[in-house]
């Protein structure tokens, strides 16, 4: 895999070096002027060292392309701000002090909170529709920043940034992930030899798991829970589910149970306090009580810690963290598949970093326009076919690109030839899950709704609340946040 990455990178450098433009930009949004000399753009992010290094290398290339093709000096300054909650809190507090970046990593739910802070529409958050469709600098309009248009984006990823109370696009997909299931192939082969004879061996195990419903999966885990010590001295639990919230939300949508929505009045609506949702949560509680699985909300750590030490058979977590699941000292073989689902309704929660553009009252209107214009061009550049493929496949721990054309690159095809976790992970997300994602409504309080959905299950599993108490508390907390 290392060799193919090096060949690919050389090809990218050659491609970028060979692109030229037919002159300066004359955008209908903002034309070149003296105010665009020496533009500095602040970029607040949450990335780890590897992704940061990859983006920084493309910042240098972007700045060079702008200078060569438009004669404008642009500087993009990356600044790490901690986790997603940290960056959201800093931006929200920054609105009152005019200390906000032009580009920020954000979950769509957090962008909804930014929008709710506006006194007038567009005060802080940029509606990207004005740029996406622009005849001069819109998607696909400038070859040296990527010549593919809007239709090249995976539709569910683009729609994720459009599910707001305000009409428009307020967050832009950058890298994406979803939930996948990692399984201890060595241990599962022995278990299936007794539980489901004829399904042992790598190919047969994969086929067997692909055919499991969620109920089938719980029955398998129930058997494992009852016979753990017959198969391994290290096993503590059959399965660890990383996100209590995603467990609730994915099952809610798979069973077509209302969660949250935006009503006809254009306001957010809390819909999850209903009998069907309570029955669903009760069933998951019963499976938990039977020892079928545990969650990070209960054990306080990621399933990868259990999985690497062979303390669980299955670990359900983000495809963006595939690189963290490798077993300690390669003590067993493992593989990856999609998570079994309910009601024959394959739907998964869409995850991964998006980018949003923000105005600051610390700048004049002309300065904001110039910064946003080149911040937009940078968004186009890092989501262009080759660049996005490189950043995801080469610099992340399992994220996938947001463009369809990125899956047609030489590097993707070479990646698929390798028999490693990154290739298997990408194949599951791109080919098996194939865009069947849940995009929940985004409004002030929707982030709290996600948290409280997980809190319902955590409280039920821990036995601290009855089902009625857990749902009532969760609804109250969301309403307070709206």
What do these coordinates show?
This protein is an alpha/beta fold. The chain folds into two domains: 2-177 and 352-428, Periplasmic binding protein-like II (D-Maltodextrin-Binding Protein, domain 2, 3-Layer(aba) Sandwich), CATH 3.40.190.10; 179-349 and 444-481, D-Maltodextrin-Binding Protein, domain 2 (3-Layer(aba) Sandwich), CATH 3.40.190. The protein has 19 helices and 14 strands. It has helices at residues 2-18, 49-70, 84-97, 108-116, 129-132, 155-159, 185-195, 202-210, 214-231, 244-254, 275-289, 296-299, 303-308, 365-382, 385-395, 410-416, 421-433, 446-462, 467-481; strands at 39-45, 74-80, 103-106, 172-173, 179-184, 239-241, 260-262, 268-270, 294-295, 314-318, 334-337, 348-349, 354-357, 437-438. A five-stranded mixed beta sheet has the order 2-1-3-13-4. Strands 9-6-10-5-11 form a five-stranded mixed beta sheet. The chain has a two-stranded antiparallel ribbon with strand order 7-8. Helix 7 crosses helix 9. The chain is globular and about 70 Å long. Mean pLDDT is 90; it is low at 1-28 and 30-35.
Descriptive labels:
alpha/beta; 19 helices; 5-stranded mixed sheet; D-Maltodextrin-Binding Protein, domain 2; about 475 residues
Q: For this structure, what is the CATH class of the largest domain?
A: Alpha Beta
Rg over alpha carbons:
24 Å
Looking across the biggest beta sheet, what order are the strands in?
2-1-3-13-4
Q: Give the tally of β-strands.
A: 14
CATH topology call of the largest domain = D-Maltodextrin-Binding Protein, domain 2
Domain count: the total is 2
CATH H-level name of the largest domain... which superfamily? Periplasmic binding protein-like II
Gap between N and C termini = 48 Å
Content-based structural category? alpha/beta
Query: What level of helicity do the residues show?
Result: 40-55%
| Secondary structure tally, helices | 19
